[in-house]
Amino acid sequence: MVNRIPRRPIRYAAVALLAIAPLACISETPDVGELDPVYAPPAEYVEIVSLARGQTFGELLYGAIDANEQAALLLAFQEHASPRRMRQGTEITLRYRPDDEWLRGVDVAVTPDETIRLDRTIVGWESNRIETPVYVDTLYASGEIETVLWNAVVDNPVLADLTFEDRNRLIDHLDRVFQWQVDFSRQIRVGDTYRFAFEREVRPDGSMRAGRLLAAEFVNSGTPYHAVYFDPNDDGRGSYFDLDGESVRRAFLLKPLAYRRISSRYTMSRFHPVLRTWRAHRGVDYAANAGTEVMATSDGVVIHRGPKGSYGNLVEIRHPNGFITRYAHLRAFARDLVVGSRVKQSDVVGYVGMTGLATAPHLHYEMMRGGNHMDPLSVDLPAGDPVPSDDRVRWRTEMTGRVALLETIPRAGPVRSFVAEVESQQEGAASQPAGGAQR
Ligand SMILES: [Zn+2]
């Protein structure tokens, strides 16, 4: 249980919000002397309204322009977006000429990243699509974990400027990157620390459009895990590697559920609530809300799909090298899933329920090999491909730069030195890293 762990204050390390990009392009502004201020009447005045529930764009424009103008405006709008797909709450800016309140333009924020600007011209209405400008910055954060969950990240005061959704997205990124190394629902210990450098695109209102973890370190019970982003083809489809250039991906996910919906306790042996006896428990239970998606932890073939005694609704998957995984007590199976279906790692196979011998919704997860049960958390499984040898030199350069970003963040707890690891790796490296990353 989460609240059995004695609470103690979280120590947060300092964090900086840095805008990286513009530094290089600041040039000296020539001195042009002081100019007299010029006062001009406002070019227009604006009225900002939002689309009410059930209201159409046309209804909203009623009174501002006549029916013919409205038809022309909607036609121009349709070049970029559908007026029927406008959501309730869509922000619409009506721009008027100040002297006679003649409607000269309309801006429709169809998504947070896109505005359709409609201008009234001599020949009718014209439309343009305007992308919301974004800037890119890098977010640095570190902290110590106080409970079993990522509350430390959510509650990190230096991330307080981020919306709750954005903080959750950040956690999703961290969780996805470390999902093969650490089961955040059960392996986390008080005193574990994290730090990360996260590059993000930010809208003018401060909300995040997209982001990417550049480098992260997670220290679990004294063992550091690293993940450094590397994109050898520059196609935006890079992946994460440890400091040795080994993939962080493993043949099996540590857990078949997304972590955040889980609240669970770990028991090796327990009093069975239905059988009322102590018995060995040869699987891992994940308490989760009914309906939570259950994912295949590795590629394989479905060999059972249906009820099976105390397991209730069960999916059983056979994987390469003699591994079998089981997912029990399901409320429902994924659509189209049948015996013989091929599944990929992270494919949804079913939904958490409490069928069979279960008193509350949870997932019972088992892993076996050659008929023997195994602890999914302690199995050492083969990894994905390492950095290709052709890309090693570039990888070292980029990795060193990204690790240096992490190095600027004070550690939240005592961990093994990062710098030493990096330096030892660079011995014998073909070229010196660029970018001044070395210390
Ligand atoms: Zn169980």
Short description:
The protein has 439 residues and is an alpha+beta fold. Helices cover 14% and strands 31% of the residues.
Sequence-ordered SSE layout with sheet pairings:
Elements: E1 17-18, E2 45-50, H1 57-61, H2 67-78, E3 91-96, E4 103-111, E5 114-121, E6 124-131, E7 135-144, H3 151-154, H4 164-178, E8 193-202, E9 208-220, E10 223-230, E11 239-241, E12 269-271, E13 278-280, E14 284-287, E15 293-295, E16 300-307, E17 313-318, E18 323-330, E19 332-333, E20 342-343, E21 348-351, E22 362-369, E23 372-374, H5 392-407, H6 418-426
Antiparallel strand pairs: 1-7, 2-3, 3-4, 4-5, 5-6, 7-8, 8-9, 9-10, 10-11, 12-13, 14-22, 15-21, 16-17, 16-20, 17-18, 18-22, 19-21, 22-23
Helix pairs in contact: 5-6
The structure holds zinc ion (ZN).
Zinc ion (ZN) binds next to loops.
Structure description:
By secondary structure, the chain is an alpha+beta fold. It has three domains: 87 residues, Nuclear Transport Factor 2, Chain: A (Roll); 168 residues, Roll (Nuclear Transport Factor 2, Chain: A), CATH 3.10.450; 116 residues, Glucose Permease (Domain IIA) (Distorted Sandwich). Helices cover 14% and strands 31% of the residues. It contains six helices and 23 strands. Strands 14, 16, 17, 18, 20, 22 and 23 form a seven-stranded antiparallel sheet that branches. α5 packs antiparallel against α6. The radius of gyration is 28 Å and the shape is globular. Zinc ion (ZN) binds next to loops.
Give the count of helical stretches. 6
Structural class by SSE content: alpha+beta
Bound molecules: zinc ion
CATH class wording of the largest domain: Alpha Beta
Distance between the termini: 43 Å
3D shape: globular
Strand percent estimate: 25-35%
Quick one: biggest sheet? 7 strands, antiparallel
Task: Give the rounded overall mean pLDDT.
Answer: 78
Fraction of helical residues: 10-25%
For the record, the count of structural domains works out to 3
- Unreliable stretches (pLDDT < 50, length at least 5) are 1-30, 260-273, 413-439
Question: What is the name of the CATH topology of the largest domain?
Answer: Nuclear Transport Factor 2, Chain: A
Write down how many β-strands occur, each being a DSSP E stretch of 2 or more residues: 23
Oligomer: single chain
User: H/E order of the elements?
Assistant: EEHHEEEEEHHEEEEEEEEEEEEEEEEHH
Radius of gyration, taken over Cα atoms and rounded to an integer in Å: 28 Å
Which architecture name of the largest domain does CATH use? Roll
